[in-house]
């Protein structure tokens, strides 16, 4: 059973999500929060598997709440009004596993919860790449290559392809290795870089300059 916490300052949104998710045999909504601070407090008490987090909330905004929860290992899926909301990139940097658009189809929302609960990135690599390209193009930052120091040359090759939107099978074909070996490299990189899914790997790849906007796969 997937335990879900809903964090949104609009009661109608929370009610709609609860009605959508509580009807599933493998899901249960264990709590609702109307602001970020309440979400953090409640998460500590009910220990959800997944938090659906709105960004714009009073008291403590969704970014700060995401940062606090992700640090404890809670999976956070940011729920936003626009698919390129200016805060989404910061949410990914803060540890969110991905994001959902509020007008997503019911099936998409259920799928997103299941994907996050099993420990995978909610965003497809291609969507993540497009999102990050948008913001690195708009707001270029100084490159810091230090995070790449622990990685082997092979791991950097895999990371670059993850960031370009390739699946494990596609990476395996390009680098002439098995998909299982690719998965092992990805898991090792997550451990070395202290991240918990592919979304954060993509952020690191762009922020360190390993991959740059416009690079081809």
TrEMBL record:
- PANTHER family recorded for this chain? TRANSCRIPTIONAL REGULATORY PROTEIN NARL-RELATED, TWO-COMPONENT RESPONSE REGULATOR
Q: What is this protein called?
A: Response regulator transcription factor
User: What CDD domains is this protein classified in?
Assistant: LuxR_C_like, REC_NarL-like
Modified-residue entries (4-aspartylphosphate), positions: 54
Report any one BP term from Gene Ontology: phosphorelay signal transduction system
Response regulatory domain segment(s)? 3-117
The stretch of residues making up the signal peptide is none
- Which InterPro entries does its entry note? CheY-like_superfamily, NreC/VraR/RcsB-like_REC, Sig_transdc_resp-reg_C-effctor, Sig_transdc_resp-reg_receiver, Tscrpt_reg_LuxR_C, WalR-like
Q: Which GO terms describe its molecular function?
A: DNA binding
Q: Does the keyword Nucleus apply?
A: no
**What organism does the record attribute this protein to?**
Nonomuraea diastatica
